[in-house]
Structures are given as structure tokens and as C-alpha cells.
Amino acid sequence: VIRTGEVKCMVEAIFRLHTGHPCLDLMAEMGVRVDEGELILRREVLAEGRSRCYANSIAIPVRSLHALGKSLVDLHGQHDQQSLLDVDQHIDFVDGFGELGELRETVGVAHRRLMELKRSMAEQESEAQRLRERRELLEFQVSEIVSTALEPEEDQTLAQELSLLTHAERLIESAVQLETLLYQGEDSVVDRLGAAAHVLHDAVRMDESLSSRAEELDAQRYGIEELARFFTDYAQKVEHNPQRLEEVTERLEHLQHLMKKYGGTLDEVIAYRDKAKTELLKSDQLDNSIGEISAEIEAIAATFSQLCDKLSRGRKKAATTLNTEIRKTLKNLGMPDVKFNVEFVETEQPDGLVTREGLRLSAGPRGAETAEFHISTNPGETLRPLARVASGGEISRIMLAMKTILAGTNSVQVLIFDEIDMGISGRIAEVVGKKLKTLSAVHQTISITHLPQIAKMADLHFSVRKSVDKGRTATQVVELSGESLTEELAGLLGGEKISKLTLQHAREMLSQN
To answer: Is the pTM above the cut of 0.70?
Structure first.
């Protein structure tokens, strides 16, 4: 919440990280340097709604700040007790206690890979089925086109040949007629050009300037003679062949039939043939690929099943020790008759990913079982699900017991307890305070409380106070020591009016710490 009239709010924290802290790896990935193990995190929230995050003065995304925060601080407040009431999270407590996080991550990786392969196989099988349904048609179409032995632009060549065969007789007649007009016949073009050449050569003897024209005329006459010889040869080559005419006609009709079915041109028919061949080849490749994926699925499924079995054994072993530790810790926290047990549930599924004792079990990225905490807080009562029977005060103590037991396996440095004393008082508060004190030897522990039995245990004390000055509220965090600490503790003991007796009681409590 940004104070009215201000442009931004800034929150900053300094952490000193021990060697090997997991946060160091995260920071290395982000490109953030850590000098002498010191990390300074800062977040600025602007009144206009934008925010900026920094790690050692390097700008980082909010999601990166969240990731760092999870590895640095564990905040437990009144609402966080809901995690104990959420059965889905119970398996997480067991895995944390049993230090099974790495194995569980391996199980998750194997499951993700298995699901990816199954999705890929389903997609490829669907595509393969589609191609199988088309295969017979595609094979027929490819066979029909391939058997035709197409040549590029063959239709144009055949069309030209068809025209030649169809008009062979007329073409022969025309060639003979042309040869006669140009050379063989009386008064042919060659004869006339010869007579003209004779006249022109006589003229050249009288005028030398006409010699070039005489050469041109001679060339024209020789050209006409060559043209006449061409038509003579042409008439001999043109063949009147009804059988070939029939063959070409049938071939063209067949090509036109293919073009009508597979494309408007012969090139398009050839392109369709190549595309159909590719589909058939893809069908064969898909069959091979499906076989390879199937083999990989079988191998990954076997590995996944083995990993799940290993995780299950680790969980059962961890649960046995956890049950004992929880009961022992809760007994110290004023619940002497408590019974606690972790119940594992496996679910049969016909296509389950894990086979165990002849049964197929449902399994996911967190393994093949779920866990639920069962508890009995009173003698003679049977164990029942924790979420149904535990009171608020009991939930607080169970959460504290969990935090205490898991402290040795948790790399988080700072534990913050916000009103963990909800629902408890008196002697039990004293026990809870001692337990928090013990926990603070392993982790830096911050406890927000209104119970003097818990507050007196702290090494450092701070009081959060609000005041109003000129209509504006101000919040202060004041370090307490000496008499100010005694007065604050007395305030927790006696309310608004603090008597000498209350102050004396507060001094005694602090001296006993």
C-alpha cells in the first residue's frame, strides 16, 4: 500500500548467504554477482501501478524475485495453516522430511517425458491412420500416373504430331505443289528468276554499279532452289500412318484424362504424383517412427515405474520416522495423548502407468500414491483425517511441529511465524515459545506474537506502533530493551493499565528466559 501523496513504496532486505546456499545457483543463472555472500533485494512499487525489482542493483523480473524469495524466506501465518488442511500438500511434507525432493524431481522429469512421448505417439498414430485410409487411393493414383511414364510437355509434342498425322495427305499435296511452282513446273519461279538474272547480267556489262543487285538476284534464285528441295524432302518424310494416328490420339486422350483428374497441366499432374509419393513415404516413415516411440515409451515407462517404486519405499520409510517425530514433538507441545499417522493411498487404474503386485496403479509427476495425515488427539478416539478433527490451536502446534522437524532438511534461512500462537495460551504458549527458541538455533526466526510467554524468548524485540499526527497515520518499528521491553511485555500481560505487580511479573519472565 503506497502512502497517500507519495509516488512510490520501496521495500529492501539484506541477506547474508552461507556457502552452498541454493539461492546462489539461482542468482548465477540470473547473472547477479554476490560479493562476500551478501544479497540485497529491493522492490519498488510506483503509485501509477508499475513495479521494479532489483538484486544487488541488477534489474530482475518479478518472477525471479519470487523464486529467490522462496529459497530465502518461509513465511508462516494464520492462513498458511490451510496447507495442513490441504490433503494435496501432505505428500509434500513427507517428501521434504525424507529429503526425497531430488528423486521426486527425477520422477517428474520421467513422467513429463512419458507424457510427451504418449502425446507424440497419439498424434502420429492419428496421422498414420489418416494416411492408411488414403493409402489405397494414393497407391492407385501413383500407379496410374507412374505407369503412364509422363514426359514434361509431352502433351504439346503429341498435339503437334497429331495435327501432322491428321493432315498428312494435304501436307504432302501442298509440298508437291510448292516444289512444282518453285522449281519443277513450266514457267516456275526458278525459271523466271533465271531469265531475270540473264537480263540483269547483260545490264551489268553496261553499268558496273548493278553488280551487287545481280548478286542479290542470284542468291534469291539459289534460295528458291534450296526451298524447293526442302519441300521435295518434306513430301517424302510426311507419313500417312493411320495406326500411329490412333496411338497418338489415344495417348493424348489419356493425358487429358490425367490432367482433368490431377491438374490442369501435365506439370501439375507430375507434381501431384510427387506429392502422393511423399505421402506414401511419410506413411512408411510414420510406421517406423511409431515403432521407435513405442519402444522408447516402453523403456521410459519401465524406468518411471522403477522410480515410483523407489520413491514409494522412501516415503514409507520417511513416514515411519515422521510419525514418531510428530508424536514426540506434539507431546512436548502439550498434546500427550496424540496419535499421528501418514496414510498412503494408491488408486487402481486399468491403464495406470505403474504396475505393482499385479495391479496397475494411477501415477503422475508426484509418484504413484497420495498421502493424508490422520490424527487422534484424545484417548480412545480412532485416527481420523487431520482436516476433519483438529482444532485451530492444534493445527498451530502441528504446523510448528512440522516446521521444527523439517528445519533440519530445509535450506531456507529465514522462518517468519505470523501469529502462530492463535488458539493457544498459558502453559502451552510457554512450550511453543521454547520450541521456537530451539528452532532459532538452526534458522533465523522471526515471530509476530501477542503472547508474553512467546515474546520473552526472543533475542531481539521490536514493537510495531501506530500514531496519528495532524490527521495522518504513521507506523514505527521500535527496538525494545531494558525498561521499554519490560513495559511492553507487561502490556501484553495486563492490558492498558500496567500495575507494579504486572511490571514485576514481566521482569521475572524475562529473567527466567
So the answer is: no
